Amino acid sequence: MRPFLTYSRNVFIPVTDVCRNRCLYCGFRRDEGKIISRHEATDLLDRGAAAGCTEALFSLGEAPWEVPGFDDLLRNAGIGDLIDYLIELAELALERDLLPHTNAGLLSKEEMKKLAPYNASMGLMLETTSEVGAHRYSPGKRPDLRLKAIAAAGDLRIPFTTGILVGIGETREDRIRSIQAIKRLHEIHGHIQEVIVQPFDPKPEIAMSHQAPPSFEVLAETVRMARSILPSSVAVQVPPNLADPLPLVEAGAEDLGGISPVTPDWINLERRWPTPEELGSWLSGFELRERLAVYPRYIDLEWCGKMTRSLVERLAGPDGLRRRDRP
């Protein structure tokens, strides 16, 4: 039997590109930002449902309410509170048989507790435990704050995605320390379902546009380190639109993340998602299996949000992955 790799079929909803951080590698944040309208969000969710997606990925800039002028954007959009709006969008997703996964940057424990019932899983990239120049204008990227937030998600029993960003000024030893920090949090809370090894991707409009991305050798070494440090129950994920997945899968990656048939990668617009058929060709020695936004272990534990559980039960097969007959 061929070894299998997992992926999720999702629709990617960019809720707002307003962000208090000014990371030197980011091409998503905008000074003149916007909030996705209900009409735009509903259209994307409808398209995702029609294309057979099971996950609605809600992504946004961090703490946009701290940015001057954001209150005006909310008011003009007829939105009273962004956390409440995220819940409203999650409810719209659930109505269309899409499981919400929210990545809203650094949130308080109270904010996560409010969102958790409406999400099958949630996420926050650790990125690195080191102090790097790329984060000097980004108060939310303090490693201690991000580790505290990931721990809070564990206290709340939220199935969680985190990861490291490779090539932003950190060293090999920094990457080891970052993976070890994630391992320690998982040993305490047991809630990390996957760890992303994501390469820095230079873009013409960013401050770090002239910095080279990490080499395949560095990425493969990092995947090997992650697989050797993390417990086997935690998947190592690589984004197949940012790097050739074959050497990374051969190095130990088991998951290819979310792949959308209807929306671009709003964080890396020029990086097209490969189709499952293309991935099957590139990775012919492996079987591709579609999973849900929540991993089988956490389905069994009933850790996914209570408002998502009946849908999870309908979508999951006996192995906890997506049912082969696709209800």
Description of the structure:
With 327 residues, this protein is α/β, with parallel strands linked by helices. The protein has a single domain (4-315), classed as Alpha-Beta Barrel (TIM Barrel), CATH 3.20.20.70. It has eleven helices and nine strands. The chain has helices at residues 38-50, 70-76, 82-95, 109-115, 143-155, 172-189, 216-229, 245-250, 276-282, 296-301, 309-315, and strands at residues 4-16, 55-60, 99-103, 121-123, 160-166, 192-199, 235-237, 255-259, 287-291. Strands 1, 2, 3, 4, 5, 6, 7, 8 and 9 form a nine-stranded parallel β-sheet that branches. The longest helix has 18 residues, at 172-189. The radius of gyration is 18 Å and the shape is globular. The mean pLDDT is 95.
Give a brief outline of the structure.
By secondary structure, this protein is an alpha/beta fold.
CATH class designation: Alpha Beta
Tally of DSSP helical segments? 11
Q: Termini, distance in Å?
A: 26 Å
Count of domain modules: 1
Q: Helix coverage percent of residues?
A: 25-40%
Biggest sheet architecture: 9 strands, parallel
Determine the strand fraction and express it as a percent band. 15-25%
Q: Based on helices, strands and strand pairing, what is the structural class?
A: alpha/beta
Number of strands: 9
